Amino acid sequence: MRYDLVIFDNDGVLVDSEPLANTVLAGYLTELGHPTSYEDSLRDYMGSAVHRVHDLVRERTGRSLPADFDATLHARTVAAFARELKPVPGAEDVLGALAADGIPYCLASSGSHERIRAGHRVTGLDRWFGDGTVFSAEDVGRGKPAPDLFLHAARSMGTAPGRCVVVEDSRLGVQAALAAGMDVYGFTAMTPAAALAGAAGHFAAMPELLPLLD
């Protein structure tokens, strides 16, 4: 293993949540008078923290989203997770292989801690992430593409940024990893490799990740 720490994104990398979350987000924004397609949501918000939604809507329309926007979006998203969320195929095999080899790993997500844990309970991934291994944009205030979250995860895990590798599936996430001085591998199940520019390599299915790490 070339790295001392593997940092996983969560949505779209470990849990197959991006289709669900972006469908909910697009529908809610449209309901509020900000017409947004599923494709628009993926393009503009995939991989980002919810503050980006507020920022872009205000920038584009001059209007602010309702005060209860975050709470309502969270409730609708978690409800969709409870009905339909599945783990990304092969994700548990990768986590199991890392654990068996004693290779440290953690998770750094733009989602809230509550949303991350809700998704993990539904999918059974909670058994792979103990206390102190789950990091959220909530912890640092600025989400991706800022490097803060990945730097916070590395610091908390006691690892130098240059010894970390990030596993990401979004343009904003790749940008954040590179800004943090980390290698990054791009998961192309939903995002074309061309949109993940700067990644050290790309893979389309989870079984392809371990050889890249080695």
UniProtKB/TrEMBL annotation:
Magnesium listed as a keyword: yes
Segments passing through the bilayer: none
Entry-linked Pfam families: Hydrolase
Keyword tags: Hydrolase, Magnesium, Metal-binding
Listed Gene3D superfamilies: HAD superfamily/HAD-like, Putative phosphatase, domain 2
Cofactor: Mg(2+)
MF terms (GO), sorted A to Z: hydrolase activity
Family: Belongs to the HAD-like hydrolase superfamily. CbbY/CbbZ/Gph/YieH family.
Protein name: HAD family hydrolase
Organism annotation: Streptomyces sanyensis
